[in-house]
Structure formats: structure tokens, C-alpha cells
């Protein structure tokens, strides 16, 4: 029995490049969340500041400043979620129209190949965009939970519930930020996946660039050095 021709659309080089994309995506995600003890990532360092925010929130009067900050964070998740939905809609429309997809590939001079190969390449990018969308939606909801938790913090700083509620709000805020950061990384790697449109070497190059860019921003950027100055301790709120 012969093997269907469409099963051979991915060459060994394609498979190796796709594997590099997945390994880089999973690897940098793990490294950012579980960095070496002596070199924490920006995402981990910001946890300290989020807890410090809630400590200051207890005694801040009025608290409209904190509300404005949280609204800004929610607006960011809304913007990226909307952008992801538009990208997914456009991508699915392209995948569902094989002739148009081949026409686009031809106009961009991306080379020859069966239509199903171009569909696989676009769907790969859409996988990361869809994952980002789910993370942004969850982050938006968590920031909403955080707003409610903050509203439940008593105005009296000496109230026994004040520190406990503020600590809860800090933990929810940290979880929301984690989902938001994962969503951003997924967008980065969706852009890397588009490098596959020009071939497996393009995918390898784009993935390597995104990996290096992500590592630098988390572990070797100027902003990280600034964040490290007078870093607050997490401790109890």
C-alpha cells in the first residue's frame, strides 16, 4: 500500500526547523519562569514590585491612582486580545481559500510547494496566536479579579483584614501578569513561525532571532539593570 503524497509535504529540514521552533518556545518559557538563582528574569523581578505595590496600596489615600494603573493594565490585555482575534480571522480565511493562498505565496515569491504545505505553515503561526489570545483573555479576567480584591481592602490600614486582602490582590496580580507575559511571548514566536513561509532556514533564523531577543529583554537589558536597583523584598504584605 502506497503512502499518500500529502504525508511527505514536510522534508527532514522542515521537521528539524519546526522542532527548533517548539524547543525554543518551550525552553525560553521555562527559563523565564524558572531562572537561575543568581540571575532572575525581569518577569520574576517584577513580582517583587507587584507585592510592594499592594503594600503601598494599603495606606495610599486616595486610591484612585491604583485604579488608574490597573485600568491601564487591563487595556493592554484588551488591545492584544482584539489584535489576536483579527489575526486569527484573517489567517483562517486565508487557510480556507487554497487558491487565494497559492496566489499570495506566488505574489510574494515564496517558492513552490503544495497548497497544503502553505496551509500548515499558516496554521503553525495561528497556533501561537490562538494560544496568545487565550492567555490575554485569562489575564484580563484576572486583572478584573484583582480590581475586586483591591476594592475589598479596608480603608483602615490597622484593620486585621487589610494586609491579608492586599496579599491576595498581589497574588492575583502576579498571576495575571504571568499570563500576559506568556501571551506576549506567543506573539513573538508567531512572528518567528512566519519565517517558515520563506523556507525552513527562514524559520530557523527567525526563531533564533526571537529567542535571542526574548533572552536579552529578560536577562540582559538596560531595563533589567534599572529594576534591580533598590529591589524591594517580597515578604509578607
Characterization of this structure:
This protein is an all-alpha fold and 237 residues long. The chain has a domain at 40-185. It contains 8 helices and no strands. It has helices at 12-33, 42-59, 64-95, 98-107, 115-151, 160-193, 200-219, 222-228. The longest helix has 37 residues, at 115-151. The chain is elongated and about 70 Å long. It starts with 11 loop residues before the first helix and ends in a 9-residue tail after the last helix. The model has no long low-confidence stretch (mean pLDDT 88).
Give the structure's gist in a few sentences.
The chain has 237 residues and is mostly helical. It has a domain at 40-185. The protein has helices at 12-33, 42-59, 64-95, 98-107, 115-151, 160-193, 200-219, 222-228.
Amino acid at each position: 500500500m502506497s503512502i499518500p503524497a500529502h504525508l511527505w509535504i514536510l522534508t527532514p529540514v522542515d521537521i528539524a526547523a519546526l522542532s527548533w521552533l517548539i524547543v525554543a518556545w518551550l525552553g525560553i518559557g521555562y527559563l523565564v519562569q524558572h531562572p537561575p538563582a543568581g540571575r532572575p528574569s525581569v518577569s520574576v523581578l517584577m513580582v517583587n514590585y507587584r507585592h510592594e505595590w499592594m503594600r503601598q496600596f494599603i495606606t495610599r489615600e486616595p486610591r484612585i491612582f491604583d485604579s488608574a494603573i490597573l485600568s491601564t493594565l487591563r487595556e493592554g490585555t484588551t488591545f492584544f486580545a482584539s489584535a489576536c482575534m483579527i489575526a486569527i480571522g484573517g489567517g483562517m480565511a486565508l487557510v480556507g481559500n487554497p487558491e487565494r493562498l497559492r496566489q499570495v505565496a506566488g505574489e510574494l515569491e515564496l517558492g513552490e510547494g503544495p497548497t497544503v504545505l502553505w496551509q500548515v505553515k499558516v496554521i503553525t503561526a495561528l497556533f501561537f496566536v490562538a494560544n496568545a489570545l487565550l492567555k490575554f483573555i485569562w489575564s484580563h479576567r484576572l486583572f478584573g479579579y484583582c480590581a475586586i480584591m483591591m476594592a475589598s481592602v479596608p480603608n483602615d490600614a490597622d484593620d486585621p483584614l487589610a494586609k491579608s486582602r492586599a496579599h491576595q490582590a498581589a497574588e492575583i496580580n502576579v498571576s495575571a501578569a504571568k499570563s500576559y507575559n506568556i501571551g506576549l511571548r506567543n506573539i513573538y514566536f508567531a512572528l518567528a513561525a512566519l519565517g517558515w513561509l520563506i523556507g525552513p532556514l527562514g524559520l530557523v533564523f527567525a526563531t533564533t532571532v526571537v529567542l535571542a531577543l526574548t533572552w536579552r529583554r529578560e536577562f540582559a537589558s538596560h531595563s533589567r539593570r534599572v529594576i534591580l536597583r533598590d529591589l524591594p523584598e517580597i515578604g509578607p504584605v
